[in-house]
Amino acid sequence: MTFTTHSNNQKPMNTLHRTLAAIGVVLLGTMLMAAGALAQSAWKQHDMNRPRPPVVTPPIQSLPVPAPADAVVLFDGSDLSQWQATDGTPTRWEVADGAMISVAGAGYIQTRQAFGDVQLHVEWAAPTPVEGTSQGRGNSGVFLMGLYEVQVLDSYDNETYADGQAAAIYGQYPPLANAARPPGQWQTYDIFFRRPRFSPSGGLLEPARLTVVHNGLVVQNNAELWGPTNWLQSLPYQPHPDKLPLAFQDHGNPVRYRNIWLRELPEHQPEPPADAYTEATVTISPEELEHFVGKYGIWEVRREQGRLQMNFYGPLFLDLIPHSPTRFSLKHTAGTVEFDVDANGDPQGLTFYLGGSTYPAKRME
Ligand code: MG
Q1: Distance, CA 47 to ligand 1 centroid (Å)?
Q2: From the CA of 165, how far away is ligand 1's center (Å)?
Q3: CA–centroid distance, residue 248 to ligand 1 (Å)
Q4: 342 burial via Cβ count (<10 Å: 0-12, 13-18, 19+)
Q5: How far apart are alpha carbons 143 and 229 in whole angstroms?
Q6: Rg value, the chain, Cα
Q7: Distance 267 CA to ligand 1 centre (A)
Q8: Who has the most CB within 10 Å: 137, 245, 248, 278?
Q9: What is the reported pTM?
């Protein structure tokens, strides 16, 4: 479902439109709040009858995956200086052989820094020798904002409920494929997270969204979460800050992590300045417009229902909006057409300006 659209290619809204849009957003938020939780799966959580995804042997990857230049490196194998326990005290997770290791009873580990929308890269390995079964085998978890879990589990030849296996959005969405590597081998998660949006009054405007790539396979494709992930309960959204720490789960198993980095993503595309497209238009008489009709290089200019039009490619004619007796703009595209006129006011050619390029054309007839 769509809650809002973010677009920078629409004409600027006037004040009335902005007000109506704002009211619409508030109403939508109120409706969602009134409706309670978002639509959920028809499956009860953790149902063993829920089909498990196909097992797909993942491709060989070149590891570790280097962090891009703008990444926040959260763990490079050396120390836990970016991390702490959830109560703010030093974590009891350990570092050995370039990996950070979950320690039973140490509790979750979380970043000192808080994050919102992110691209996150995590490498992890399930413990060997294999101990336990189902949810007791190599269990941990990547908690975006400390609330939304991408499950970490040793899912290599390990039966468990579909919405709790590796790369599940825990209790909500099974992965689309079981791309697990054997325990002990390094595996990758590349996680693309868009945080939920809340209105100032606390209504839900937009759910959290997750795309997850496990060992090179897309296993969550823009999944819309219906609330924080949870065991046994289905919790509704509660408004929370725009940024919260990333946390990893201590589930009692010595799961290892390494090469953890993320890129903070811009939350909005820039809007055009208020005066970007406010240039005044002029009125040109039908007789004057008729002067421009003709063929110019590969283009044709015609008059249609009182408006000047030009075919930019093929049979597509677009309106030309006049800003001076010789200069016109396009309605939806940042392009302009300037006619060259002689001393008698007769067009000799035109120049089309688009995307930093200039396209001159002589009049043919
Ligand atoms: Mg877990």
Answers
A1: 16
A2: 9
A3: 9
A4: exposed
A5: 9
A6: 29
A7: 28
A8: 248
A9: 0.84
H or E element, residue 110: strand 109-115
Q: How far is the CA of 158 from the centre of ligand 1 (A)?
A: 14
What is residue 178's DSSP assignment?
A: B
Residue 336, domain extent: 286-362
19 CB-contact burial (10 Å; exposed 0-12 / middle 13-18 / buried 19+): exposed
For residue 140, count CB atoms less than 10 angstroms from its CB and return exposed for 0-12, middle for 13-18, buried for 19 or more.
buried
In a domain, 7, yes or no: no
Residues 324 and 258 in one domain: no
Residue 323 forms part of a structural domain: yes
Distance 14 CA to ligand 1 centre (A): 48
Return the residue matching tokens 């589930």: 251
Q: Are residues 315 and 210 in the same domain?
A: no
Of 7-11, 79-83, 102-106, 128-132, which range is least confident?
Answer: 7-11
SS3 176: coil
Question: Which of 264, 299, 324 represents a domain boundary (last residue)?
Answer: 264
Nearest to 188 by CA among 199, 177, 179: 179
357: CA distance to ligand 1 center in Å?
54
**C-alpha of residue 102 to centroid of ligand 1, in Å:** 12
| Residue 7 in tokens | 């677009």
- Distance between CA atoms of 136 and 162, rounded to whole angstroms? 15
Instruction: Give the count of beta carbons closer than 10 Å to the beta carbon of residue 308.
Output: 25
Same structural domain, 215 and 297: no
Q: What is the pLDDT of residues 298-326, one digit of tens each?
A: 999 999 988 999 998 888 999 999 999 99
Q: Which residues contact 160 (CB under 8 A, 6 or more apart)?
A: 134, 135, 153
**Does residue 35 share a domain with residue 76?**
yes
55-90 pLDDT, tens digit per residue, is 999 999 999 999 999 999 999 999 999 999 999 999
Mean predicted lDDT score pLDDT of the chain: 91
Of 230, 264, 298, which marks where a domain is finished? 264
Sign of the alpha-carbon torsion through 322, 328, 330, 334: negative
Task: State residue 77 phi and psi, 5-degree precision.
Answer: 100, -10
The predicted model gives 209-221 an average pLDDT of 98
- Domain tally for the chain? 2
229 alpha carbon to ligand 1 midpoint, in Å? Answer: 10
